[in-house]
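Troubleshooting log. The previous structure file for this entry was overwritten by mistake, so regenerating from the original sequence record. Sequence copied from the archived sheet and checked twice against the printout by T.R.
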Amino acid sequence: MGMDGYRAVPDYTGEGDIHMNKAIVILKKGEGRTIKAGGSWIYDNEIDRTEGSFEPGDMVSVRDFDGYPMGTGFINPASKITIRMMTRDPDAVVDDAFIRARVRAAWEYRKAVTDTSSCRVIFGEADFLPGLVIDKYEDVLVVESLALGIDRLKPKILQYLQEVLAEDGMPVRAIYERSDAKIRVKEGLPRAKGLIWMAGEGHNKYSAEENFIYEEGAFDPRLQIIENGVKYVVDVENGQKTGFFLDQKGNRLAMQNLVRRMKAAGEKVRVLDCFTHTGSFALNCGLGGADEVTGLDISDLAVAQATENAALNGLSDRVTFRAEDVLDHLPQLNEAGEKYDVVILDPPAFTKTRDKIRQAAKGYREINIQGMKLTRNGGYLATCSCSHFMDAETFRTVIGQAARAAHRRLRQVEFRTQAPDHPILWSGDEESYYLKFYIFQVLEER
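Regenerated output below.
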């Protein structure tokens, strides 16, 4: 197919791991709807053919069926998501300056919208660095790389991020990798976990060529952070994801403030925090002045860490944790006639695929029925879903069904989403909007 009238993406031969060539990927007619709507992914079944040679992970030019330039992305034929777009500008060159500008833009955005002591600095597609997550816990970076192309760029991105942070007086002490998700196998990548860089004499930048080996005990993966006035120990080695769920920062503060206002009104506040993980909602309620807080989680490790966090904040007398299967335990609490002034439901994603939505809806409906029944008349229920595939409208419908089944009326106090350091990119981004968080007052039918 002729490409007359369109300029090819310029050839670029740069140092490091950026590999651009003149390979051109042609989409099938009628395909590419996602990227045309502003998204970042091109699936294998959307591609008609490729003109020119490439290596997996290389940057390639993308054209529509009629030759119209769509932009540049990195390609991996081993993945169902064959191309992840880096830019929609057909004339852009993905070189060092391009990557540095993306990193700086991500950091400048965080400085404007959030407390940067501990935050998500890079959020994949929403920061136009697809497949990459970098969380900052005080002076330690934790990186999760989920795609071959971005894995090649990871050393440069980490180097530039260190430089940008240093300019603002925030030197990085260590970089820990948590690229151990199973999805890496689908990309043809090994799962990786461990310390990849630590500050020291002669080593002031991350380098892919340096394979450092540290003595046992040189780096403690248990870090301490402060968020909303609450102290936490974050285990970047054994904790879920990168060690801590930074996306609920504002929602945790909302619950802290709600409890504080309830106490100011002279109420006695008893809280049940379900799926507590490391105790974050429970501890915020404790700091807000709750008289009694119980946190439940199925993981013994999580309960041990939450208990440690309670002690760290001087809240052990009012905030306690138990290892329980929440799905089984909530009906038992209802049968025992327990009532709480505040109930928090923060379950893990009940589905990570579109075809399991109906099953997930059943799970969300059941825990919300139980949560509403455990909430006293006039008390408050916080309920959320962190599943991208459980969209906001479906989640709202499920909550309404639960209220009818529990014979409760709900008065909405607030609807919230994820913290702004996890930005929601409109117009086609596949996964940046995932967290839905409601606070309701629960009333008996009247």
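The radius of gyration is 24 Å. Archived copy saved in two places this time.
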